[in-house]
Amino acid sequence: MTFSPKAIRAIGIAMALLASASARAAQPLQIYFIDAGGGQSTLIVTPRHETLLIDAGFAGDGGITSVPGEAARARDPGRIRATMREAGVERIDYLMVTHFHRDHIGGVPELAQLVPVKTYIDYGSGYPPEQRAKADTDALDVAAYDQYLAVRSQGRHVIPRPGDRLPLKDVRATVVSTDRAVLRKPLRGAGKTNPACRPAATLTYPDDENTRSTGLVVEFGKFRFLDIGDLSAQPLYDLICPVDRIGALDVYLVAHHGNTSAADPATLSAFRPRVAVVNNAPRKGGRRPLLQMLSQANDVDSWQLHVSTEGGEYNSPPDRIANLAAETGYWLKVSANEDGSFTMTNGRTGAVRKYGPRRR
Predict the structure, then answer these.
(1) β-strand pairing of 172-178 with 181-182
(2) CA atoms within 13 A on the CB side of 132
(3) CATH number of this structure's domain 28-355
(4) What is the Cα–Cα distance from 26 to 22, expressed in whole angstroms?
(5) What is the pLDDT of residues 269-280, one digit of tens each?
(6) What are the pLDDT digits (tens) for 51-60?
(7) Averaged over 97-109, what is the pLDDT?
(8) Is 247 helix (H, G, I), strand (E, B) or coil?
(9) Domain range annotation of the chain
(10) Is the pLDDT of residue 292 over 70?
(11) What HEC string does 313-332 produce?
């Protein structure tokens, strides 16, 4: 059989497209847990190299009272840029801010000077005048928020609602909480009664910014990952009780840096994670009750960004801790496949641990 030049060209184009699609399918979903010294910054890179950054850590030198300064010297933005280079990406397509605390938004102004940021995602507006006037409102958080607004105004801004999907290709990224509202209906595979629920949620103060955290489930084929920022109290309770609205996870970034507010057995009963990651610092997050809960949980491997000073014998094994010294800044990395299998890599040691597909 003889083909015309036009047909040969068409066949060549079709084969190239198939090869390109096959190559994309073979690429993993990458998730980097960046050490922000007890703040948060999580970089997600899709098989097509689209990028979603969740939070940007602290400003300046990473101190609790640090303010934005020379971008080239900023600790957390510098670590984010270095991680982006490791991942082979040059821009942030979507920057999702979980909530307006300075350990989550402080680094945004300096980061925006280092790399292009196209779209900002957050719950909208915070710190109204009546809240700013209260004596117990943290002025440094308010200042960080105002600085963030100035940067956000230079890009596209999206305010999501629970159930919305971010426009990422190859993955399903579903908003599960934001501005104290949560999913009304369970996600696929969820909806079972949670036997570990307490009678009611933990109480908190009315202006608790953590309760406004925007949370996200990212699915790549059968692989599932959850990041809910610092979500706590009633909104977290509503996600897991009396029925679980999320479903079983492969990787769970433990809420609120692994503080005591996250040490609720009902979360593990609902999420049933295979891996739980704690984005703590030596003396921030990684609280002993939380680490004890994880260490005693069946079928859960806990990983930490830092060894916890108070965690003692409940710290994860050293090979599952990225940083054994306060001054280092190594990451943890997930590489996930569509069949639900994934690996965890310790940036400090380079060691890789494999996890097969979840047994259904």
Answers:
(1) antiparallel
(2) 12
(3) 3.60.15.10
(4) 6
(5) 999 999 999 999
(6) 999 999 999 9
(7) 98
(8) coil
(9) 28-355
(10) yes
(11) HHCCCHHHEEECCCCCCCCE
